[in-house]
């Protein structure tokens, strides 16, 4: 096995058989700046003048156009900093922010144990094979049989059946943690509202949102990527992971069911 120093130096050696030309180009960054500042017309004009191929898909272009944000400019005068001898937190001066992070795993998490058995991996597809359960059925079984914890990470969550199963688990005092993509989280809250469920009243459920990487333009404008992971974990013993969304879907999809003994 090559040492780390060998691996890092190989990247710059054009004679090395594993050499891959750098994929970063300054023109790409300038083209994105042109798109953000001058919309499609400026973007295509720059591509033509710089002789650069259109490297963004239509979906990526629309995502940038719809999510770009301008820098925040406060209309309030700056507050003078006053030294305090007490234990006041900084949110006295900056009430929008807080020194306290949202509590992580405050509902508890199963104690970790060493593995005592092999990991079993089953591949599930949608539509399912005649002798195999569907992805949704397997997910609902895992949720129904969970005794300690359920963790869901999903870019889009709108499936009312799985949501009902998760609510039932929370009513059994099973800790439920849900992480959603920030830009798609409103679909989940709309579903909950349609089901007449007040998420704040679910004692054993925690819902958080995360975003992708933030891209910073020269002008200070920004746009965020998305969290596209999808998996379901129950009791730290089984995981469903793949490209299936917790939504009413008709596309083909593949999931892997991993289960092990601890």
UniProtKB/TrEMBL annotation:
Pfam families: SACK1 (PF07894). It comes from the Eukaryota. Residues 13-250 form the Scaffolding anchor of CK1 domain. InterPro entries: FAM83 (IPR050944), SACK1 (IPR012461). One of its GO terms (cellular component) is keratin filament. One of its GO terms (biological process) is signal transduction. Belongs to the FAM83 family. PANTHER family: FAMILY WITH SEQUENCE SIMILARITY 83 MEMBER HA, PROTEIN FAM83A-RELATED. This is Scaffolding anchor of CK1 domain-containing protein. It comes from Hucho hucho (huchen).
């Amino acid at each position: 096995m090559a040492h780390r120093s060998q691996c890092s130096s190989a990247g710059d050696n054009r004679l090395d058989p594993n050499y891959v030309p750098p994929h970063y180009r300054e023109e790409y960054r300038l083209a994105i700046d042109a798109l953000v500042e001058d919309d499609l017309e400026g973007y295509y004009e720059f591509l033509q003048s710089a002789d650069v191929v259109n490297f963004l898909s239509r979906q990526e272009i629309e995502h940038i156009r719809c999510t770009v944000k301008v820098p925040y400019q406060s209309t309030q005068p700056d507050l003078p900093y006053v030294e305090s001898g007490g234990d006041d937190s900084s949110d006295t001066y900056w009430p929008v922010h807080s020194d306290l992070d949202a509590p992580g795993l405050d509902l508890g998490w199963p104690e970790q144990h060493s593995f005592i058995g092999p990991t079993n991996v089953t591949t599930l597809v949608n539509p399912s094979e005649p002798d195999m359960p569907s992805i949704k059925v397997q997910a609902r079984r895992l949720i129904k049989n969970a005794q300690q914890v359920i963790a869901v990470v999903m870019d889009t969550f709108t499936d009312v059946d799985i949501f009902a199963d998760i609510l039932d688990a929370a009513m059994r005092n099973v800790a439920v943690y849900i992480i959603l993509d920030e830009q798609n989280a409103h679909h989940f809250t709309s579903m909950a509202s349609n089901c007449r469920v007040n998420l704040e009243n679910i004692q054993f459920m925690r819902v958080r949102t995360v975003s992708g990487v933030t891209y910073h333009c020269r002008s200070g404008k920004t746009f965020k990527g998305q969290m596209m992971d999808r998996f379901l974990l129950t009791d730290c013993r089984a995981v469903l992971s793949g490209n299936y969304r917790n939504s009413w879907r008709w596309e083909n999809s593949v999931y892997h069911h991993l289960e092990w003994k601890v």
